[in-house]
Structures are given as C-alpha cells and as structure tokens.
Amino acid sequence: MLRAVILGCLLLSNVVNVWADDAVKTDPDKYRVVLENERVRVLEYRDKPGQKTKMHTHPDFVLQAMAPFKRRKLTLSNGKTMTREFKGGEIVWMNAQSHIGENIGETDTHVLITS
Description:
Blueprint: H1 2-20, H2 23-26, E1 31-36, E2 41-47, E3 56-58, E4 61-65, E5 69-76, E6 81-86, E7 91-94, E8 97-103, E9 109-114
Antiparallel strand pairs: 1-2, 2-9, 3-8, 4-7, 4-9, 5-6, 5-8
C-alpha cells in the first residue's frame, strides 16, 4: 500500500511539473489559448521588443508567423542559443522543446502555435 502511495505521489509531481512549465501559466501576459480540445491546442503569442519569457515547454508544434519579425533569441534548456527570423505567413514545424524566448529585435512578435 505504501508503495502505491509513493508511486502515485511521484506520478502526480511529474504532472504538476508539466503544468508548471506550460507557457500560458508561465507567461499569461504573452500567451493566450485560442482553441483547445482533446485533439489540438492553439496558442496565440505576442510580445514587444525587449520582452522576455520565463523558461517553459512546448510539445511538438507548428508555428505560424502572423506578421514578419526579426531577431528572436531562444535559449534552450541545455543552454544552447539560437536566433530566429520569420516572414509574415511563414509556417514551420518545431520539435518539442523547453526555452526562454527574448525579443531582441525592433518589431513585435505575433505567432500562432498549434500542438
């Protein structure tokens, strides 16, 4: 019985950790749920130059740039950094990742994220 209780607590703590890393929870001022059901989740993300997110996690997703933006820095959970730029309307596939996003450019960011 004690073993089952410990296992249950460990599983619950993993679920809580996944929810804690959810972008809508870590950065509610930037992320908004547009549509969510048992098959799909669509988030809208907006920020302005100089703004930065907290570390958060995305499952595999499709990103659609609603407007062009330049100079978006991503710092991955392993410390690796990359800079991204997108044309308006561009759609890309992204593998699951945890990152901090930072707008280091001069344009607002506006994207839809579908997972």
